[in-house]
Amino acid sequence: xxxxxxxxxxxxxxxxxxxxxxxxxxxxxxxxxxxxxxxxxxxxxxxxxxxxxxxxxxxxxxxxxxxxxxxxxxxxxxxxxxxxxxxxxxxxxxxxxxxxxxxxxxxxxxxxxxxxxxxxxxxxxxxxxxxxxxxxxxxxxxxxxxxxxxxxxxxxxxxxxxxxxxxxxxxxxxxxxxxxxxxxxxxxxxxxxxxxxxxxxxxxxxxxxxxxxxxxxxxxxxxxxxxxxxxxxxxxxxxxxxxxxxxxxxxxxxxxxxxxxxxxxxxxxx
Length: 270
What we know:
The chain is built from twelve helices and eight strands.
């Protein structure tokens, strides 16, 4: 893939993307990375990219096809104005800043700027992420294709046209890894309570979640059917599920409440 790209922010997510892009054939010579952290820049330089500490150091002749904003949402508004001159010349802007709406970028870069908002999640760090992309009307078919290719380097990609759905996306997949991490914690703690050594309980919980997720991804059967497949009548799994699937206090109503809380918080932040 022959593209020139400006990556703003090279923390954990930025580095995951950078590594994935280069593994997938993006030429590092066409990538400029901006980050004030020297260790982050060293990572970019080791990959063959140009690493610089601030926007003032962007080479004068450099005009990126794509600008990827990978900075924390708390500081996103502070950095936008610096790059207006690049978007005026047609650069696509891709943002992975959580909770920052497309209108924020249109105000900074102009109403005609091509913007794609992406909601990733942390498993992107091991190229197992889930990215949901939402374009504004000015992102053309080629730009959407380039964004899709970039995001596929770190996981699976889905597209929505209604930005209002991003809050629910955040509540499910954006925040979702933390729910799963806590489930691993809870399963391990329950194993210890049942008499297992802690190290073994943690390993059982981690590998069970990882294996079940891999099976759910690869199987042609639904999660509901997979659950039924391992649930013998009056067996141990059925006994556990009777608690977990309780209509009033089981995982179902708890997860509904959890996702709703995260979704509502996303709306408040936006």
